[in-house]
Design brief:
Number of strands: 14
Structural class: alpha/beta
Order of helices and strands: HEEEEHEEEEHEHEHHHHHEEHHEHHEH
CATH topology of the largest domain: Rossmann fold
CATH superfamily of the largest domain: Alpha/Beta hydrolase fold, catalytic domain
Distance between the termini: 35 Å
Shape: globular
Length: 506
């Protein structure tokens, strides 16, 4: 997503950013008889930098380049772009952990986690999470994880500078399975080329990147590459929890606590409820949703009218929406209906990625604003401009190719067939086979793309064995989908992840 990196669907979701270094001249094309390893690395740009993290000067090497994926006949199929940061230290490379990071989309580059969250350079943002500018600016990221782990940011095929080779089918990588296989193969190649087979290894994904991370973790272990940990930022493992489809009542229940959190943030709740501390209030809403709201929805048309009126009355309190609107919606409030109506009287809509951020309502006749998601538009330009300047300037990677920040791809949910995609089983299997694998899940209270309670529900219904549950940690943040765009949340996230990286006693 930076001098450290500082925030569905379409699901969703996608989102994060990066910064500086000394440019080097482009390498000359390798001779035909060149060493295969050198040939594969001929486009790599390697530069040296320093950043201050936790009051320490961290000297590091930045490497920007591509790695080729090949078929069983050694023919190139795709080139995957990456940027790797490796800190200088005493000892062997294997002594340092390494974390492989990617975003989601599908169709997103890794710019968001890179330039907004984990990397050594970060897009300059204000306190709420707007990119400051234009013109935009990168700053050193004093909250980077580079003091704790080396970092490799991966752009899946068709995003960033990653491309399928001419004459091949890019669609091979635009599927759940093809995407998982290609990213897992990239990681195998990177640790091989960089002598990191014995390093502690971690994955970090955001949004659909969490879906990918669950599958990649399982795929890597099938290759004999065990992981130490998986970091899931704004997780979606079961897509049933997000899809407001006919006959699927689950999302209405799981989104409700997020609606309440946003009504609370925008000071729309009645009386004493507005005075409640947010975690206490959300505990109450979650319990009501499970014990009262869910069973009421299950009754459908058989729900007695008296109960229907009582449910609507309570929903109006928890959502700050008109009771009449709730009754007209058959007690089922979609994400778009909520975001388009919470501030309807002020001709404003709230963001999907971050409901704290508001924008103009340009289409008052519908639940949609007609202006897109204000929480995405407030960061998109800043991340795009700064990354393009950074990669060619400070990192010295020279190319005229368009860097695909967030590209439209036709995605094949092949494994789901006629069902909802659910990769929670992949994560459960990986944790069962590797008793040292730990999982950290970061969830923003104000995220309308991947609501925090949906992640809770998925874990509670998939990771049920006590020995596995003990290895799952949730972190909650008063921020949105890109938890890191909110600086206090980024500070908290760094603190919890530094602890997560500490070896745990058996």
């Amino acid at each position: 997503m930076m001098s450290i990196a500082r925030f569905s669907f379409a699901i969703l979701f996608a989102v994060l950013v990066a910064w500086p270094s000394l440019a080097e001249p482009e390498a000359a094309p390798p001779a035909k008889d060149a060493d295969p390893k050198a040939q594969a690395e001929s486009d790599w740009s390697v530069t040296e930098h320093e950043v201050q993290i936790a009051e320490k000067e961290i000297a590091y090497t930045a490497t920007a380049g591509t790695i080729q994926l090949k078929d069983d006949k050694d023919k190139a199929k795709a080139s995957m772009f990456f940027i790797a940061y490796t800190a200088k230290h005493d000892g062997k490379p294997q002594d340092r952990p390494v974390m492989f990071c990617f975003n989601g989309g599908p169709g997103s580059s890794s710019v968001w986690l890179h330039m907004g969250c984990f990397g050594p350079r970060r897009v300059h943002m204000d306190d709420i999470g707007h990119a400051v500018g234009p013109p935009y600016e990168l700053k050193d990221n004093a909250l980077s994880l580079l003091d704790t782990t080396d970092l490799v940011f991966i752009d899946p095929v068709s995003t960033g500078f990653s491309r399928a080779e001419e004459g091949t089918n890019p669609g091979e990588y635009h599927s759940v399975s093809g995407d998982i296989n290609s990213v897992a193969e990239f990681i195998r190649l990177w640790i091989t080329k960089n002598d990191r087979w014995l390093s502690p290894k971690y994955l970090a994904g955001e949004s659909y990147g969490t879906t990918r991370a669950a599958g990649v973790a399982n795929r890597l272990q099938a290759k004999g590459i065990d992981l130490n940990g998986v970091v899931l930022v704004s997780a979606v493992l079961s897509f049933q929890t997000l899809r407001f489809d006919e006959g699927n009542d689950l999302p209405y229940q799981l989104y409700l606590p997020t609606y309440t959190a946003l009504a609370h943030y925008h000071k729309r709740l009645p009386g004493q409820m507005q005075e409640h501390k947010l975690p206490v209030l959300l505990d109450q809403v979650e319990a009501w949703s499970r014990k009262v709201y869910g069973p009421a929805l299950m009754q459908g048309a058989a729900l007695p009218e008296e109960e229907r009126q009582a449910i609507a009355k309570q929903l109006a309190i928890y959502t700050a929406l008109p009771e009449e609107l709730i009754l007209d919606s058959d007690l089922r409030i979609s994400q778009w209906r909520f975001s388009g109506n919470l501030m309807k009287g002020e001709d404003k809509v709230i963001g999907r990625f971050d409901g704290r951020i508001i924008g103009p309502d340009l289409d008052k006749a519908t639940d949609r604003s007609g202006a897109g998601d204000p929480s995405y538009s407030r960061v998109a330009g800043g991340f795009t401009a700064t990354f393009n300047d950074y990669v060619r300037g400070e990192l010295g990677y020279k190319t005229d190719m368009d860097y695909g920040i967030l590209v439209g791809v036709r995605w094949d949910y092949d494994r789901a067939k006629s069902n909802y995609l659910n990769v929670a089983g992949d994560l459960r299997e990986a944790m069962a086979e590797n008793p040292k694998l730990r999982v950290y899940i970061a969830a923003g209270y104000y995220d309308l793309a991947t609501p925090y309670h949906a992640a809770q529900y998925t874990i509670d219904h998939s990771i049920t064995h006590p020995h596995a549950r003990d290895r799952v940690t949730f972190g909650y943040f008063e921020s949105g989908h890109m938890v890191f765009t909110h600086r206090p949340s980024l500070e908290k996230l760094r603190g919890e992840l530094v602890d997560f990286f500490q070896p745990k006693a058996d």
